[in-house]
Write a structure and sequence with these properties.
This is Colanic acid biosynthesis glycosyltransferase WcaI. Helices cover 42% and strands 17% of the residues. The protein is of the alpha/beta class and 415 residues long. The strands form two sheets. It has an eight-stranded mixed β-sheet, sandwiched between helices. Strands 11-10-9-12-13-14 form a six-stranded parallel β-sheet, sandwiched between helices.
């Protein structure tokens, strides 16, 4: 009889980016291997911050979906739970979103408790307090509990001043310690995050990095042809930011660099994606008269490999205090397509150390406008091809979904 797994996570397929993408691919891989997978999640809303059709018709109540796997007979049962989704997320509204999902997911866990016996229950952070639901299930049914941390949410909320009360922060860390104590395994996605989590949890942390399908995302030789297909000149140099467009990304820096470098008429800054701050960025670019900044909508998945291959430079922009707390998921795909990544990460952070060790990108100091501008100028230099090749090689050797998930299966599911 195949093992039964329960995933509790606020984001899931068909969300195209971020945690929802990885949760969806993880469960799909396990189901294809014959596992009976159940998911408690929300309706897809990210990165648009709006529940997407056709799910918007059912967003105010629960919905069940059953997806038959084309692998060895495993299947996926998805329970969608209602939650509050702000169209303009702020710190407080994000807290309300997480809390509302935790409440609706709690009732779904209660409903499932007497029904199915799951062998493994996986809780994915953020939101961190979903771990309490996994603890609840473990206490009643005895499942093995994996607590997987994609983003150190409490630290991020504190450092970005989303929660200012020291008493509230202390209480949240207390809840987190309780979850750590009851988790059979704790995992995370980068060395730096693992070190910080180990200090708090007092137990070994399993390395479970984000991955990429290196067969779907790969280098394309004719990048010049791709540029003309997207309406650019063959001599244009495309600097691309593709991903969520929110306040915490600090994307205003792209506009400032574009303003500084506007004399180079062949240098084009392309901002692709969706998010609550896109309209503000558009207005700011227009106010500055930046004809070298172009905005694209989120690209369809089937065209995404071609789209990424078109760019000469890929921007991975983070604020200084996030470099050790978040491993950007967009970087894995950039490396897979053999793209030249320009990454804002400070010396000593795990992201900086990893990129420097494998010589697979251009590193610039975070939140330093001049460093970003100088980095883009430097990116047009001679060693770009070497850095891009190193990135693809790293993706093939370390980021393949098959290799990472096989290791995960052996450590978490089989043992």
């Amino acid at each position: 009889m195949s093992k039964r797994l329960l995933l509790i996570g606020g984001n899931f397929s068909p969300e195209p980016t971020g945690i929802g993408k990885y949760n969806g691919e993880m469960i799909k891989w396990l189901a294809a291997g014959g596992y009976d997978c159940t998911v408690i999640t929300s309706y897809p809303y990210y990165p648009e911050w709006k529940v997407q059709p056709p799910y918007d018709k059912h967003k105010n109540w629960y919905k069940k979906e059953v997806i038959e796997s084309n692998g060895q007979g495993g299947k996926i049962t998805v329970y969608r739970c209602p939650q509050y989704v702000p169209d303009k997320p702020t710190g407080k509204k994000r807290i309300m979103l997480d809390f509302s999902f935790a409440v609706s997911a709690f009732f779904k866990v209660l409903q499932l408790l007497p029904r199915k016996k799951f062998d493994v229950v996986i809780s994915v952070v953020p939101p961190f307090h979903l771990g309490l639901l996994a603890v609840l299930y473990k206490k009643f049914r005895g499942a093995k509990f994996l607590y997987h941390i994609q983003d150190m949410q409490i630290e991020a909320a504190r450092d970005l001043n989303m929660i200012k009360s020291p008493k509230v922060i202390k209480a949240l860390f207390g809840l987190e310690r309780y979850i750590f104590k009851n988790a059979d395994m704790v995992s995370s996605i980068s060395d730096g995050m693992m070190r910080k989590i180990q200090e708090k949890a007092g137990k070994d942390i399993f390395f479970f990095p984000n991955w990429v399908d290196v067969s779907l995302f790969h280098p394309i030789e004719d990048r010049i042809g791709l540029k003309t297909a997207y309406g650019f000149d063959v001599n244009d140099k495309i600097v691309l930011y593709s991903g969520a467009i929110g306040e915490k990304q600090g994307l205003e820096s792209i506009l400032k660099t574009a303003d500084t470098l506007r004399a180079d008429t062949q240098l084009k800054f392309l901002i692709c994606g969706s998010g609550p701050y896109k309209e503000k960025l558009k207005a700011d670019a227009e106010a500055l008269g930046l004809t070298n900044v172009i905005f694209f909508p989120l690209q369809p998945f089937e065209k995404f490999n071609e789209f990424l291959n078109m760019a000469d430079v890929h921007l991975v922009i983070q604020k200084g205090n996030a470099s050790d707390l978040v491993m950007p998921s967009k970087l894995t795909t950039i490396l897979a397509v053999g793209g030249l990544a320009l990454i804002t990460a400070n010396d000593g952070t795990s992201l900086h150390d990893l990129v420097k060790k494998h010589n697979m990108g251009i590193l610039v100091k975070a939140e330093d406008q001049q460093a970003l501008t100088d980095g883009i100028v430097r990116a047009m230099g001679d060693n770009a091809a070497e850095l891009a090749r190193n990135g693809r090689l790293y993706a093939e050797n370390h980021l393949s979904v098959g290799k990472i998930m096989s290791r995960f299966e052996e450590a978490v599911v089989i043992n």
